[in-house]
Amino acid sequence: MASFFSSALNETIKGYLGRYETKRSSILPILHAIQDENDWISKEAVQALEAEHGLSVVDVNEVLSFYTMYRKTPPKPYRLEVCGSISCWLNGADKTIATAKAHIAEAEKAGKPVPFECHKVECLGVCGYAPVALVNKDRHLNVTPELALKLIADYSKKDLPAAAKKCAADLAARSSKQ
Ligand code: FES
Fold first, then answer.
1. Cβ of residue 130 lying under 6 Å from some atom of ligand 1
2. Can you give the CATH number for the domain in which 127 is found?
3. pTM above 0.85, yes or no
4. Which DSSP string do the residues of 88-123 spell out, in sequence order?
5. Positions in the chain short of pLDDT 50
6. Closest ligand 1 atom to 126 CA
7. Which domain holds residue 111?
8. Same domain, 151 and 164
9. pLDDT tens digits, residue range 59-77?
């Protein structure tokens, strides 16, 4: 039977399973690897971890529900994650977030959606450059509301990341089966 995961991802999963003393200890990095490839972690992926690699669904779901960094629903291709912790908050992070969210909502309303979602996150570790934000894994410093809008415009023109393309293809395949 074909695996739910790509062969590269299966090798990565096996590597983590062999690296730690217990299977449970390997759940965090395995979930990261799945999310890196698929852009999110579906129920099917969790079930496949049990069926193909012996990781208990209960244990995996416990980890998934505890950590907010794992995406449990299919995301937009780009995530603007703005730090809302103290230094960034004092330097206007809330305005950056509000501006980005309003822009995304207006674009949606106008029928010209942008491939972005925006979230507030905890300290990103470079507080001297507040407000700090990530676009997926790219870090951006001093992210004013104007820069947030520019980032949204610039990234929206780029080719979609591989994980986002895979996510879209998986969802299309899933809906064609229904
Ligand atoms: S408070 Fe924002 S990066 Fe630390």
1. yes
2. 3.40.30.10
3. yes
4. HHHTTHHHHHHHHHHHHHHHHHTT---SEEEEEES-
5. none
6. 3
7. 78-156
8. no
9. 999 999 999 899 999 999 9
